[in-house]
Amino acid sequence: MTCQARQLLEPVCHQLFELYRSTEDRLRRFTLQFLPELVWVYLRVTASRDRQSNGCIEALLLGMYNLVGAPPGTWVRTH
User: Fold this and answer.
1) How far apart are CA 23 and CA 73, in angstroms?
2) What integer is the mean pLDDT of 28-56?
3) What is the mean pLDDT of residues 34-52?
4) 10 Å Cβ neighbour count for 38?
5) Closest CA to 57 of 33, 37, 29
6) DSSP H or E run through 39
7) Residue 31: predicted pLDDT
8) How far apart are the C-alpha atoms of 46 and 53, rounded to whole Å?
9) Does residue 79 form part of some domain?
10) 3-state DSSP: the chain helix, strand, coil percent, rounded to 5?
11) Which of 15, 29, 41, 54 is 20 to 30 A off residue 7, Cα-Cα?
């Protein structure tokens, strides 16, 4: 993955995570539509051993996974 692609991907991953943390179901569903593609990109980059390109996708996927069982009140930032 090129440096420019990485720079574009980081804000997208951040925004997708913020949308997923929303208490609104439609925003969570919007984020979930990208899950298959995110997993595919994560696996492709991991297989190519380009670990530097993987950080924001890995953080997004892990954050989404951690919120699966979290109570709704913990999804929204309090500050």
Assistant:
1) 8
2) 87
3) 86
4) 19
5) 37
6) helix 35-47
7) 95
8) 9
9) no
10) 75, 0, 25
11) 29
